[in-house]
Specification:
Helix content: 25-40%
CATH architecture: 3-Layer(aba) Sandwich
CATH superfamily: Alpha/Beta hydrolase fold, catalytic domain
Distance between the termini: 88 Å
Shape: globular
CATH topology: Rossmann fold
Structural class: alpha/beta
Number of domains: 1
Number of strands: 8
Strand order of the largest sheet: 1-2-4-3-5-6-7-8
Order of helices and strands: HHEEEHEHEHEHHHHHEHEHH
Number of helices: 13
CATH class: Alpha Beta
Length: 335
């Protein structure tokens, strides 16, 4: 048989071998990675550029020993036992807006951004250990002239709350732990952004690149019902993460974290304690709530069906009902 003639104008090109295909694939992947990084570039933003959208009244800023603090102090000023709300990792005071709306007609309510989150910004000393956060809360209470308070915290904020209750029990009248951190357990997969923040060298790129999809993935992981995740919610988490210094602070915080190191202190809590837990929490499972209930004598555990790691944000009205009973507030009228 005769071989087919070569095309006019040149010789027949042989298909690339294995090495050639590998080079082509690597080239395509590199181009895709370069495009993804270009699209994901997210430089830091100044506080001033974020205030108009995320700190309208009643937000205010105070200087606390050189630390800028974003806070809201609303409701009944004569309340002898204000309710102080402490958010979790990568969140901000905005996570409590649903509860604040229901509390402030009858109680004084204080919410704020922890150092390294929201608009408060990073600590000058880079100390993000648990008791450093607790001492920050005590200093803030001093500045606001709050002698005693009801402390409520979610996730990291729950750990901060129980640390305050063990460091200065006379300052805490009651405790509300919402899917709280601080006890040892077999953790499931953390949000991707937190995982990357723990990887040396790679975590440095987080200061300049932040895919919006990564923020969405984190929210899907902490919400039981992803249909509740709105564009404005994603905007809030995304934009406040870009606040200058916040991404570096998250890396420092995760590097310093000693999971469950001070869990033995929880048994020293004597204040009336309400433990709220989302039944669908995939980050800190409900079994941890049961562990808190066993360790804190006289505490009450309420598990909320159909809610995830941030039940106060995912469904503020349903998650508020046990708190209303705990605080002895009258039932809400028709909505």
């Amino acid at each position: 048989m005769r071989r087919a003639a070569a095309p006019a104008g040149g010789s027949r090109r042989e298909p690339p071998g294995p090495a050639g295909w590998l080079l082509r694939i690597v080239g395509v992947l590199l181009m895709a990675a370069a495009l993804a990084m270009a699209l994901s570039r997210a430089p830091e933003r100044s506080v001033e550029s974020l205030v108009a959208r995320w700190a309208p009244p009643p937000s205010e800023f105070i200087d606390l020993g050189g630390q800028l603090v974003h806070l809201r102090d609303v409701g009944a000023r004569a309340d002898p036992l204000p309710v102080v709300l402490i958010h979790g990792t990568s969140a901000s005071l905005h996570t409590w807006e649903g509860w604040v709306a229901q509390l402030q007609p009858q109680r004084r309510v204080v919410s704020f951004d922890l150092p390294g989150f929201g608009l408060t910004g990073p600590r000058a000393d880079d100390d993000y250990r648990g008791d450093a956060d607790a001492r920050f809360v005590l200093a803030l209470l001093d500045r606001l002239r709050i002698a005693r308070a009801v402390l409520a915290g979610n996730s990291l904020g729950g750990e901060v709350a129980w640390r305050v209750a063990t460091l200065a029990p006379e300052r805490v009248a009651a405790l509300v732990l919402v899917d709280a951190a601080g006890l040892p357990f077999d953790a499931g997969p953390a949000p991707l952004a937190w995982q990357l923040a723990r990887v040396p060298l790679l975590n440095k790129t987080m200061e300049w690149f932040l895919p919006r999809a990564m923020v969405v993935q984190g929210l899907v992981q902490v919400y039981a019902d992803p249909t509740r995740i709105t564009e404005q919610l994603v905007d809030r988490y995304f934009e406040l993460t870009l606040r200058e210094g916040n991404r570096r602070a998250l890396v420092q915080r995760l590097r310093q974290r000693e999971h469950g190191a001070d869990a033995g202190r929880v048994a020293r809590i004597t204040q009336p304690t309400l433990i709220l837990w989302g039944a669908e929490d995939r980050l800190i499972p409900p079994a941890v709530g049961e562990d808190f209930a066993r360790r804190i004598a006289g505490s009450r555990l309420v598990v909320l069906p159909g809610l995830g790691h941030v039940p106060h944000e995912e469904d503020p009205r349903r998650s508020f009902a046990p708190l209303r009973d705990f605080l002895g507030l009258p039932a809400a009228g028709p909505q």
